[in-house]
Amino acid sequence: MGKRKRGDANNPIDIVSSTPEDPGHLSKHRTCWLHTVAFLHARKMKISKQKIRNFELTAPCFLGTFSCRRRSKRRVKCKNTSLIKGKNSSSVKCKDMITKRRKNKLDSGKFEHLLDNLWRSFSEDKKAGFTYLDSLWFDLYRKPSSKAKVLTWIKRKHIFSKKYVLVPIVCWRHWNLLILCNFGGSFESKTRTPCMLLLDSLEMSNPWRFEPDIRKFVMDIYKAEERPETKELISRIPLLVPKVPQQRNGEECGNFVLYFINLFVEGAPENFNLEDYPYFMEKNWFTAEDLDCFCERLNSSEN
């Protein structure tokens, strides 16, 4: 028997069968990298490896959902292998580099543990005007079956008595940080106007895609608290997306959110107002080395 050719018309390549079975889930991800590749492939357009990599970074929602073939037992030399000179010279294995990269990827349990440690490191004076929500609450709110429970949990946080509410968001395998500012302030105030900040270390993933869910989330919080503000006023709360430092790979978003929290708590103004926006939140806010040092300190605090 002859070998089957790739892309044979009689045996077309199936590039969508590995996606989640729920069609409703797929409909929310029209811009994901899988759909983009499928669109270009159907039109017989050439796709470079770099373009595919960019698609993956743009919408990492399906990363890790595809089955992989069994790992080969063949040993391959790593180009980046270096020698450590000393009494017992040994080479740095590729496995060490892969392990280090995997450690940078945070699941919700690891994230919450590190956030708890970070929160305890702040002084009581620093924490006085802040509170934070569990990183899973926003995603749970988006599910009808758990929406009411989440709003009840948030009510216990008394967020309208705080200047800043930190809301870590993990959706589609990506971490962002939403900050609710001055929610207890007056809409007519010029110095303490309610506003929202969305910090995203992967700007190319389009952080604005969260806006509809964020606005529903905020509207329901006001409603659950039986606040006097009208729907029209609440719908006009500004959502700002500052230009912040960007991650170097697809594994760092959780660490970025933790560092955003650390720096914001340490440097947040006494009264956040729109006239002085974006304050310190700029592309040169911190360096990659600053982030690495922070992660080392935070992880060492566990030991």
From TrEMBL:
SUPFAM superfamilies: Cysteine proteinases
Keywords, in A-Z order: Hydrolase, Protease, Thiol protease
Signal peptide: none
Region (Disordered) location: 1-26
GO BP terms: protein desumoylation; proteolysis
Domain Ubiquitin-like protease family profile: 90-264
Matches recorded under InterPro entries: Papain-like_cys_pep_sf (IPR038765), Peptidase_C48_C (IPR003653)
Single GO molecular function: cysteine-type peptidase activity
Family according to the record: Belongs to the peptidase C48 family.
Full protein name: Ubiquitin-like protease family profile domain-containing protein
Provenance organism: Citrus clementina (Clementine)
